[in-house]
Task: inverse folding
């Protein structure tokens, strides 16, 4: 059965409504929690980048150590009026709101383990990092400045079962295209116009929609254009993404797409503006890397087999790896994330908390 204290922390945390950019009440809760345990914490200035109402909360334990445990404080959707349901094997909401288990599940597991480790006097030097805006811009993990001694870390933020962890992810390019033609009356002088919708339609026949490889996908998810049926459309806006397992592959894919689109534009006398950036870049952690080895040890000490997995999604772990801090994203068992049917199995929740405790209290060597 679920430990009463773990349940209490989870209920308190999920009863706070704090979407991305409005994490302050969660930060306040964490601050009170760690101060009650006799630990110090501070907030950084991640709010400058996130434009939200708080920065990250950082808890350096005994000098900060060489690894961190992290979870994010925001939810992508409001959990206002959440009504918990404690079923025989799981916690859910009543189906009218999300449960907020992504990532309050991970957050609760860490705080619960921290409290136990302080009570048992087994806590080792480490850092706890609670980030803002993971669900939107990752402004929290992008801003976080690891102390010089920081070597590796763990984020508690995957829907997978505890023991599974993301050792490898794709990266994601976000792109925006504007196809420009020329407006004209569609009935009186269509030949004077250049139809941006027609150009876009032809260009999109060259777009590699869908799954292209092991870690490669491409999608145009938003398209807008046109002002009236009697006007030759002069502007179409497209917003999409390309995911890939390596930066080289991703760059090659986006350049090919832009080239193909430009050729169609030129054929009809249209123009094109393009803009793209890496929303997150790929990472790959090997079995000799520190977080891999530390996690293996923690999982086996609670009777679980650490299982590396590939993921097509990004998390704070991606931006932390960019800083040279090898980080893996751990399964918490927060299932159906972001839907009104979010849930967590008691068994997974307990295991996530046990793993957090092991990481906080056992040395790697
Ligand atoms: Zn999350």
Result:
């Amino acid at each position: 059965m679920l430990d009463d204290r773990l349940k209490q922390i989870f209920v308190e945390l999920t009863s706070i409504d704090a979407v991305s950019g409005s994490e302050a009440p969660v930060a306040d809760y964490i601050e009170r929690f760690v101060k009650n345990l006799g630990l110090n914490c501070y907030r950084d200035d991640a709010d400058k980048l996130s434009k939200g109402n708080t920065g990250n909360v950082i808890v350096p334990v005994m000098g900060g150590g060489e690894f961190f445990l992290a979870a994010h404080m925001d939810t992508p959707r409001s959990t206002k009026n959440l009504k918990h349901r404690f079923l025989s094997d799981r916690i859910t909401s009543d189906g009218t709101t999300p449960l907020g288990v992504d990532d309050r599940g991970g957050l609760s597991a860490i705080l619960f383990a921290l409290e136990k480790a302080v009570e048992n006097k087994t806590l080792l030097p480490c850092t706890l990092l609670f980030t803002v805006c993971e669900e939107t811009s990752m402004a929290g993990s992008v801003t976080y400045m690891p102390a010089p001694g920081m070597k590796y870390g763990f984020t508690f933020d995957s829907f997978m079962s505890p023991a599974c962890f993301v050792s490898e992810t794709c990266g994601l390019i976000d792109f925006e295209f504007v196809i420009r033609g020329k407006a004209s009356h569609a009935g009186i002088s269509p030949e004077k116009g250049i139809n941006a919708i027609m150009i876009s339609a032809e260009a999109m026949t060259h777009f590699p929609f869908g799954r292209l490889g092991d870690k490669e996908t491409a999608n145009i998810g938003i398209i807008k254009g046109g002002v009236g049926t009697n006007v030759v459309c002069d502007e179409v806006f497209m917003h999409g993404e390309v995911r890939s397992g390596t930066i080289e592959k991703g760059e090659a894919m986006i350049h090919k797409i832009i080239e193909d689109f430009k050729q169609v534009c030129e054929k009809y006398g249209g123009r094109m503006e393009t803009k793209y950036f890496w929303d997150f870049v790929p990472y790959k952690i090997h079995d000799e890397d520190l977080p891999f080895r530390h996690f293996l040890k923690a999982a086996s000490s609670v009777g679980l087999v650490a299982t590396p997995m590939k993921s097509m999604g990004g998390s704070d772990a991606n931006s932390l790896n960019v800083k040279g801090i090898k980080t893996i994203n751990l399964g918490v068992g927060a299932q159906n994330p972001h839907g009104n049917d979010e849930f967590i199995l008691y068994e997974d929740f307990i295991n996530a908390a046990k793993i957090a405790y092991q990481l906080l209290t056992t040395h790697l060597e």
Q: What stands out?
A: The two ends are 32 Å apart (CA to CA). The mean pLDDT is 96. Residues 171-280 form a domain with the Alpha-Beta Plaits fold (CATH 3.30.70.360).
